[in-house]
Structures are given as structure tokens and as C-alpha cells.
Hints:
Blueprint: H1 2-33, H2 39-47, H3 50-76, H4 88-177, H5 183-209, E1 217-219, H6 221-238, E2 242-245, E3 254-256, H7 258-275, E4 281-289, E5 292-298, H8 306-310, H9 327-337, E6 341-348, E7 351-359, E8 375-376
Amino acid sequence: MVNSSRRGALASGAVRIGGLVLAIVAISLLHAATNRSEAIWHGLLLRLYYIPILVAAYWYGAFGGVLIATACSMAFVPHLREPGPASEAGRYAEIVVFHVIGVTVGLLATTERRVTARYQTAAATLETANRELRESYEQLQRADRLKTLGEVAAGLAHEIRHPLASIRGALEIIDERSRRDSPEAEFSRLAMLEVQRLDDLIWEFLRYARPHEPNFQLTSLDNVLERVAALLRVEAERSEVRLSIGRCEELPDLSIDALQIEQVLLNVTLNAIQASPRGSWVRIRPQLAQEYALIDVIDEGSGITAEHQARLFSPFFTTKEKGTGLGLAIAQRIVLAHRGRIDVHQTSSSGTCIRIRLPIGASIQPKRIERHPQVQV
């Protein structure tokens, strides 16, 4: 692809230069073939030399304008001492004007291109800022909706826990009074499992609806990643997925709540493991980007559809058969509380990258830390 583009550019440049040379030759031949007594045509053909000079100056700047002006002057040399109404001094002055026009137009064209490039750069920067602002506004709106929804969920969960405890107690009594091999005992055990599942779900709602404020402390991100790798080792082996934890020696210690960020990484990485086929890799890649620490969690799954991507961090949305749909919603709330962002950085049919962006405190000075080898589970 690169070689094809380069060959195309070279071919286009050769065509341009060839066209300029042909134009000069054609004007010179016409000038030589015109009868000297026809002063008007001689003067008109002389002015035609300005066309390749102007074009070259526009295409190649002052250097190209001067180069073609010199070529036109050399083609015009045989006509300097021709008899006619124009004086010899005037013809020499015409050659000077060739070069002045080439330099002036070339400088103007170069300046115009620089101004255009700056405008395009500024427009691209403004568009990026507007896009980030829109995304931030959407995240704030989503967070506000989630807060209201969380308050409702907390109230319902609180009310449900009391009758659920009564049901659990009744089932325990039935189980104690039933024979182990009786249908009553089997049904009570099944009911207890469902009660336990509901209780776990309610605790999940409460944890989402009543999040704790982050306890910010200087923490090494390496240590957090190592704990995540250790906690997910068994799940990765069970799914036959290989887990790779990268290192970035440029990252300073971050002012974060280590337990909450660990929970975020556990949720995101567990989803990546479950979305990846057997024998594939899930990679966690930290990196430093200006005033932010970026953590990319990359899987090799089938990607996320545009429809699902828009609802990925909404509460209770899940594509799993068993799941509350609160894991990523809780992760987003935690990251927002850390003044950061979490979003789908890239997705395709060959995998998805979830990017977590955490700010590096202005009062925290970056420091060099010892390079660790890459950990593979």
C-alpha cells in the first residue's frame, strides 16, 4: 500500500514536470515560428511564459517558480536582440519580472498552504474537543439517570430483604423437619438455592445503588494488576484463556482507591475472558498518555455490535444467560468517581478493547520504577 502510494506520487510529479517543460517548448516554438513583423503576436507569446511560471510557483513554491522562470529565460534568450519595437533593455527587464513573479507567487502559495494546514489542524482539534465534550455530557446524563435508578433499586432491595429473610427461615425449618430423601427436602433445598441467588442479586443492587466514596491513596498500578491476575488465574485456566499482564515503567504511583479499581479491572477482565474463545489471549496493557494512565483490556472475542455498544454500561443490560448486568455499570460509576473515563476504545470481529483512563494527580511527581517482566497466566 505504501509503495503504491509512493509510485503514484512519483508518477504525478513526473507528469507535472513534463507538462511544464512541454508548455515552455511549445511557447518557444510558436514564438520562433511567428513573423517578427507581427509585434502583437510576439508580445502575446512572450506573456504566455507567465503561465508555466505561475503554475510551477503554485505547485512547488518559490523554488519551483524560480526554476521555471530560469528555464523560460533561457528559452527567451535567442529573442533578446531581435529587431522590433521593444528595446533590448525592456526584454531584459521582462526576464527579471519572470523571476519576481515566480518568487512572489511561490511565497504566497506556500503561505496559503501553511494557513490552510493550520486551519485544518485547528478544525480537527476543535472537532475532537467537541466530541469529547459530547461524550462527557452523555456520561454525566447517564450517571444522573443511574443515580435516580440506583436510589429506587436501593429502596426496593431494602424492602425485599425482610420477606426474603422470613422465607429463608421457613425453608430452613422445613428442611430440618423433612427426611433427607423426601420430596419436601429436595424442594426446600432448591428453594434455598433460589433464595440465595436472590439475596446475592439484592446485594449486587445495594452495592451499585450505594457506592462508597473512593479512599484515595498513592498506589502502584503494578500491584493492582498483579492482584487481578492472581484472582482471575483459576477462571482463565477453566476457560482455557491465557492472560497477559503488561507493565509500563513510566507510570507513577496513582492516587486511587485500590480496592475499587481492582473491582473495575476484575469486572472488565472477567467479561473479556468469558467473551474470548478457548486458546486465545486476554491482554491488559497499561500506558502513560500525558496526564493520564491508560489501561487497555483487550480480548480476542467476536466484538461488540453497535447496538450493544451503546448500552454496554447501562445498568441491568447483559447478553449473558446468567448475570445482573450491573458489573460494567458499577465499573463506570467507580471510574467516574475517580475523575476518569471508561469506554469501548476499539471493537471488531477479531476482538474488543475496553480503555480505562485514570488521571494522574498534578501533585504527584512521576518516578521511574523497576521494570518487571511480563506476567503470563
